[in-house]
Amino acid sequence: MLCLFGLQKGSSNYFSMSLQFTNYLEDPVMKQFYDFIQTIEFYHMAKLGIPDKDISIFLSQIKQDKKNKYDPNLSVKVPFSYNKFNVDIYSKDYSGVNMYYIQNFTKMKCDIYMDKIWKFNDSFVCKWKVSTVYLT
């Protein structure tokens, strides 16, 4: 995937990345991954008892621009506590890389997991987190 905007620091000391499902309509592996993430989110909506007509109360982490001009992206959080990232990062080309090495449009593969789902202001929020980053 492509990390569109590099490592982003949000308010209250959290970090995130926007990972693009690059070429997902033509790339069968990327399409399969996109469908997999979407299926997991739909599964959790069903388990939470959210009917199809109320699908908007589940805040998907798959983001798409309003005009569908760009490929969708997945918003993931980067675990950070006690002044350090709780993420393993690897690069075949460089040694000693860290999370700050990630700039706009960095290509990578990531191991991700669904951290939690909670209710907030009458909506359900699901957060994906990254555990390992492989720079390609």
Primary descriptors:
136 residues; mainly beta; five-stranded mixed beta barrel; two-stranded antiparallel sheet; 11 strands
What report would you give on this structure?
It is a single chain. The chain contains one helix and eleven strands; from the N terminus they run βββαββββββββ. The protein is mainly beta and 136 residues long. The protein is globular. The model has no long low-confidence stretch (mean pLDDT 92).
- Percentage of residues in strands: 35-45%
Number of strands: 11
**String of helices and strands:** EEEHEEEEEEEE
Instruction: Give the biggest beta sheet.
Output: 5 strands, mixed, barrel
Structural class: mainly beta
Characterize the overall form: globular
